[in-house]
Every structure is written in structure tokens, then in C-alpha cells.
Amino acid sequence: MTVASPAAGTEDTGGRPVVPGGWLGWVTSTDHKRIGLLTIGTSLVIFLLMGVLALLMRSQLAQPDLHVVDPATFSQLFTIHGSGMIYMVLTPFAVGMGTYLVPLQIGAPGIAAPRLTLLGYWLYVLGAVLMLSGFATPQGAHAGGWFSYPPLADKVHSPGLGSDLWIAGVLLATTGVIIMGWTVLWTVLRRRARGMTMLRLPVFCWSMIASCLMVIGAFPALLAALALLAVGRADASVFTSNTWNIGYQHLFWFYGHPVVYVMFFPYLAAVAEVLAVFSGRRFFGYKGTALSLLVFAALSMSVWGHHMFATGQATNDYYSLTSIALLVPAGVEYFGMIGTILGGRIRLRTPMLFALAFIPQFLIGGLTGIMVGTPVIDYHVTDSYFVVAHLHYVLFAGSAFGLFAAVYYWTPKVTGAMLSERLGRLHFWLLVVGTNLTFLPMFALGYQGMPRRVATYASFDGFAWLNLLASIGAGFLAVGIGVFVVNVLWTLRKVALGRSGNAGDDPWQAHTLEWATSSPPPRFNFAADRSLPPITSFAPLLDLRERRASGAAVGAEQEGASGS
Amino acid sequence: MKRHLPYVVVAGWGALNGLLLAVLGIYGESSLVFWLYGGVVALLEVAALAVLASSRTGPDQHVRYRVPDRGAGAVPVVALGCALVALAFVYGLWLLALAVPLFGVAIALALHGTTASEG
Amino acid sequence: MIQRRVFGTVFTLESAVAAFVFLVVLALVCHAVVRRRAGRQPTPSDRPQRPVLEKYYVGVLAAFAAFLVAWTAWQNHEEHRPPNRTPVRVDVMGFQWCWKFGYPQSPAKVSVTGTCRGKDLPTLVVPTGRPVELRLTSNDVIHSLWVPDLRYKMDAFPDHVNTFTLTLDHEGRWRGRCAEFCGERHYAMDFWIKAVSPEEYDRYLHGQPIGTGTGTAT
């Protein structure tokens, strides 16, 4: 342990020196920025893989009675697509963003317990590898759906090794995410720089507090559910009893609903930061938003039973009460976002495009969420394509758009180079068309009676043309993501060759502390010879610019007065 | 109050969950749910106490920090060991025979420190 | 068809409100993008919050949420009110991957099942105008009985019996499905639900096959 100053690195390291830029320097790094980037990079790679699985499914469903893959393989595809996107992509990416950004935003040189954070990352990676390695086993990967209800997921009905690997992988990865959640939470609560009071935390940091509280409170329930599943696979008699079948569902959804908000708040907050910066003003209704995030998170811990309305074994009235009550904090967040842009001076750069599209698109997910939180509607639409549409509007049209807004917004800070604006716009429009073309028809499909997780459907079901539209939309998504990949790789290549041109410390005229240091930031985030700007609010850089502007105006006035 | 705001946030959030649990008590649910949710509320309050203890012993905001500037070569080895333990439940407990030496290697690495300054 | 009616009422209201909210938000976003573009040189507002407006807004949201909670809970209880006549009982058993319908009150102990392959789908026969109590269970994994035209589904658990009552007010034949993923042939686990006149139902219970004429599905 040393004090963070450039001179501190000279103490005896007691071992062979390792080149910091080498691969060993990366995989053993205690620098929160590297750990964050490793997490984000890993989850983006898995994101691409999961997209391929989705394309396979959409090609099978494009027309009735198609058999691109057999039904058993199809079940593996949707199981791993769902598990991968939730356990291995959107959740780790959100926590990885927190790992990278939170110390910078609070003016700290590092994260609390960096070695533990690194351990969390490694558990996550190895968990992902274990889960995916199921495809290499004789019976293929796990095929019980991402929530893997017993008795279907027990040894009798899912005898494959893929199921065991799925349990082991998800258990490891979730343990890793819990560890990272703890260190991010501890950092934001206990490692703030002088002047950074709780009420001057950026909105993104508040979203990480809310998210990490859910991680530490709700995620252990998944570990318990997986342990129960593992016990049930060893002893088949466990799941002959209804108590444990329904008990598993309670344990699972106690995790399974809060995780949706862990996959949502950080992206929502990234959108909030982008909206404020590209509106040229501070975020509107800061206190209400921070408070509503905490209330939102607490409520979301108590709504899990709305996934069980059709089980006939849940207290539907209560879960409906808490689910519908969510519209209050969600409304407060929309109040802040809309208020910010209504009084802004809007620059339509790529991050802002994604952030603006997030607002109405996520709203579709949110409003249909109130519907599925209403038991009498849910009885019809649960486990149908209506729910598939709803969750993809929340997680793709919402969170993934926030994810891309974040990537375009923070890439100049992370790499020192801007992503191409032209490719970014192309990516954006392809994604908007693709997202709505893919997921909007699914509402109608579910309403008409198409169950989710069907490997195919009959021609007389009447689902053909809506499914075809959805599959065409998936094609747009594939091209759009392809453009994004080209954009990122091209930029990284330019950075590697030193031909990227410097983005500068603060290319967007941003508000928060990470933009007060160099791009990319030095090892300890803020160089010793460059003092932090005074932290006067949750937008210290905006305060600084305003003070300079008013100072200049006062100066000019005085000059004018003395001149006359 | 201001100084202990981190504690208040965590404790208050736990208490809000407790309130929601109490409302569920009015509606009624299976006993497993009350154990589960009650346990989580208790866990959150313990976390809040940890934050309080830390706030009492250190400053709320920092000027000087202690952060490591060296890599941690032992960590990936520990993680690999954990993965082997998880795999032992899939392929048999003999894998523990590989995991235990790995943990030994990790301890040795942690004591000796093989990675240099990243500063 | 109380399920269909209640669903229709609540779904219509919530869709209308949702559409209204969506259009308002979309209009506000479009307004901001058009009117507040940097090209038009607007001055960014320096008003950090509007607490009074926000309080009223939260009040309206909370009031609407309270209404929605109470009203939809009431609708839910209406939907599940016990029938005023003794219902006809049918035992439904889901299995991998088809259904079995048993009529415990029938003199001939009628029981129907199928393979759910090709056209071999089992038919659940019920009388019109009389409440029918379905007692759902499973002998392997969790299934879910869904009749999309009825706008209702309920899960079938092993080691547990779930019950719900439906009343069909006209003759016809509708498609039923399994909604809970239950393994490889989940996609094919369909059945028919057929409502016949009480007289024909009576004959059916005595072991006579149902006339081949199919009703009109709505």
C-alpha cells in the first residue's frame, strides 16, 4: 500500500518487474480503470456472441415451420441468449462502468479494495467461460431458460452436463458481480474527495449507489436459488415437492426483478448525464431524481412476485400494488430528463441521439411494464411474446441505447480519441429502425397468442408476417451493430498507430470530474501537479465555466466602466 | 447527520425495505418469503453498520488516499482456483486436488509479490 | 367469458392511458429537439429544479397509481368470484408433451388425451352457459394452460392443484396452448377447447362422441 502520488511508485516492489502495458500488466492490474475496461470489453465481446444466437433464432422464426436448428438446439439458443445477456453482458457492463467512472467522478485516485475488484472481474470471466463451454458438451448447453425452473432443470428432465456448467458459471459470475458491487458502493460512500459531499455526487454515482444496494441485497438470493438447484440435481426427491418448486421461483425472482433495475439505472443515469451535457445545462431536478432512484430501487425489491401471477400461488394483490407504485419514481425520473432538454440548448451529437431515443423507447417498455404488473392483463400476456417485446423494450430499446450513449460519450475520455460521428449516426439510425421493427410486432404476436420460447409455429397460426417483420428488423440490428464494431475497432486501431488526433480533456463541455483530467486519465486519475477544480455542486466543471464567464463579464464591465 | 449521510442512505434504504416487508405481512405470503426478505433487510442493516463504523474512524471526504500501485498476480490464480472448485461439483471432487495447490500458489504470489509498479 | 371481458376493460383503459402518456412525452421530446436546437441559439435555462411543480406532479402520479391499484385489484377479484352455481369439474393434467382431460363426474369416466403430434390434439369439451372448474396439475414439469381467446392462463404444477373457473357463453372451438417452457416439444403442446350445448355435453359424459361439426371461433 502506498500513498497515491507519482513518487510513490519507487518503493521496492520485491519481485520481477512487469511491463505495465503488457498483457500481464492488464490481467493483474489493480487500476480501477483497467479492471473497468476489462469488464466492459469482455461483456461487449459476449454481447456480440449473444447477438449471433439471437439472429439464429430470428432466422428460424422468420417463417412458419422452419427448421434451421432442431428444437433442442433452439432451446439452448434462447437459454444462453437470455442468460448471457442478463448475467454476462448488461449487468457486468453496468458494474464495469461503475468501476471505471465512480472513482473518477468522486475525485479519488482508485477504487476501494482494488484486488477484490479484480477478483470479481476474474470470477465473472471464468463464469462466462464455464457457462458457454456447455456448447462443447455432448448434449449441448443448458436448455432450461434463463430462469431455469425446476423440475425442468433437475437432473431427470435436463440430464446434460451443460446444465451443471450453467449453474457453476452463473454462480461464479454472480459472485464476481456481487464483489464488484460491494467495492463500487464502498468507493462512492467512503472514498470521496474533499468537497464531494453526498449531495454533490453526480447522478451517475447516485445510480450506482441504488444499483449496488440492489446487488448486495438481492443478488445473494440467486446464489441461494442456484445452490437449491444444485442440491436438487444431486437429490431428485427435492423437486418432487411443490414447496421447493415454488420456493425456487421466489428465490430466483427475488434476484430476478432487482437485476432488471441493476441493468437499467446505470444506463438511465448515463443518459441523464448525456442529456444534461448536450443540453448545456445542469441536470434538472437533481434531488428528486436521486431520491426517486433510491425509492425506485427499494420498491423494485418487493415486486418479484409479479413474475408469478399465473402460478396461482403468490399474493397477487401485494405484488400488483408495489409494481404499479413504481410509476411514481419512474415518473419523477422522466420529469428530470424532459425538464433538462426542455430548457436546454441541444447539440445533436451521437451520444445525444442515443440518449434522446432512449426516452420514448424505454417509455414503451415502462408503460407495458405497468400493464404486465396488472394481474388481469398479465394472466393473458405472461409467457407470451408480449412479455418478450416488453422486456426487450426495457433492456434493448432502453438499456442498450443508454449503453451506446455511454460508449460514444466516454470513449474520448477512455481512449483519447473520438469515435467517428458519421458511423455513429449510421449506427444510430439502423438501430432505431431495427429495434422498433423487431420488437414492436412482438406485442401483437403475444396478444394474438404466440407463446414465448417456441421453436417454431404452424402456418395456420397466423403469426407469419409479424414474425417476418421482426426477423427483418433483426437484420437491421445486425448491420447496425456491425457498423458499431467497425467504428470502435477503427478508432482503437488509430489510437494504436498514434494517428487518432487528441480528443482533448473535455471535448463535450461536460460537467463532472472525470473530464477535469487528461484523456486517458493517468494511473492515479488526477496528476499531482494539476489540482482538482473546486467541487461546488454535482456539476463542478459547469460551475467553473459559469464562474469564468461571469468573471469575464464582470471584468469586461469594469473595463467598460473605467473606459468611459 | 451530514457526516453520517452514507450510513443514513444505506440504513434508510434497508428500513424502506423493512417497511415494504411489513406491508407484505398484512397481505400474507409463505414463510420462506418472510425469512428471505427479512434476512435481506437484516443484511442491509449490517452493511449500514459497517459503513457507520468506517465513517466514525475515518474522514468523510479525503485529501490523502492509500491505494496500491502494484498489480496483483495472485488474484487470477485465486479466481482459477475458485472456478476449479465450482467445476468439482460438475466433474467430481478430484478437481479439488488441483484447486488446493493453486490456492497455495496464490498465497505464495501474494506474499512475494511478482508484479511491479504500474505507476 | 368473464376473463375476456375483464381483460378487455382493463387493457383498453391502460392502453389508452399509456398511449396518451407516450404521445405527450414524444411531443415534448420533439418540441425540445426542434425548438431548443443549438442552431436556433436558445439560452440554456439555469433553473435547477421546480420543487413545487414536482410536488404536484408526484401527487397526481400517486393518486393515479392508487386508483389503478385499487381498481385493478377489484377487477381481479370480480374475475375470480366464486360461481353462483355448482360448477362442472374437469381434471386437467399436463405432461411432457401433451394434455389429459378427465371428467370425474361422468358416468362413463370419460378421459381424453393425445400425442400433440400433427393433428392429434386432445379436445377439452365443456358445456355452454355453465361454470366449469378446471383442476390443473402436472405429472412432470411445470406447464401452463393458456386459451388466448379467453385471455387467461394458469400454471400446472406437479404436486399441486391449481383451480380456476370459466364459463363459455356460446358454442365454438378455440385453440389452447402450453405457455410455460417445458422442454423440447413445448412449441407443439396445443389442445382444443370446445364448448357444446349442455345436452350434447351430457351425452358426451355418457361416452358418446361429439358431433364432428366445428363451431365458429371468435
Helices and strands in order, then pairings?
The complex is a heterotrimer of chains A (564), B (119) and C (218).
Chain A: E1 2-3, H1 23-27, H2 32-61, H3 71-105, H4 114-132, H5 161-190, H6 203-234, H7 242-256, H8 258-262, H9 265-278, H10 286-300, H11 316-325, H12 327-342, H13 350-372, H14 375-381, H15 385-415, H16 421-448, H17 464-497, H18 540-563
Helix pairs in contact in A: 2-3, 2-4, 2-17, 3-4, 3-5, 3-6, 4-5, 5-6, 6-7, 6-9, 6-10, 9-13, 9-15, 10-12, 13-15, 13-16, 15-16, 16-17
Chain B: H1 5-27, H2 31-57, E1 66-67, H3 74-91, H4 96-112
Chain C: H1 2-35, H2 51-79, E1 88-95, E2 98-102, E3 111-113, E4 123-127, E5 132-138, E6 143-147, E7 152-156, E8 162-166, E9 172-178, E10 191-196, H3 198-205
Parallel strand pairs in C: 1-5, 4-10
Antiparallel strand pairs in C: 1-2, 2-3, 5-8, 6-7, 6-9, 9-10
Helix pairs in contact in C: 1-2
Plain-language structure description:
The complex is a heterotrimer of chains A (564), B (119) and C (218). Chain A is 66% helix and 0% strand. By secondary structure, chain A is an all-alpha fold. Chain A starts with a strand and ends with a helix. The model of chain A is unreliable at 1-15 (pLDDT under 50). Chain B has 119 residues and is mostly helical. Chain B is 71% helix and 2% strand. Chain B has helices spanning 5-27, 31-57, 74-91, 96-112; one strand spanning 66-67. In chain B, α1 runs antiparallel to α2 (31-57) and α3 runs antiparallel to α4. Chain B is flat, with a radius of gyration of 22 Å. Chain C has two domains: 2-39 and 49-79, no CATH class; 88-205, Sandwich (Immunoglobulin-like). Chain C has helices at residues 2-35, 51-79, 198-205; strands at residues 88-95, 98-102, 111-113, 123-127, 132-138, 143-147, 152-156, 162-166, 172-178, 191-196. Chain C has a five-stranded mixed sheet with strand order 3-2-1-5-8, with no helix packed on it. A five-stranded mixed sheet of chain C has the order 4-10-9-6-7, covered by helices on one side. The longest helix of chain C has 34 residues, at 2-35. Chain C is elongated, with a radius of gyration of 25 Å. The termini of chain C are close together. The relative contact order of chain C is 0.15. Chains in contact: A-B, A-C. β1 (2-3) of chain A pairs antiparallel with β1 (66-67) of chain B, so a sheet runs across the interface.
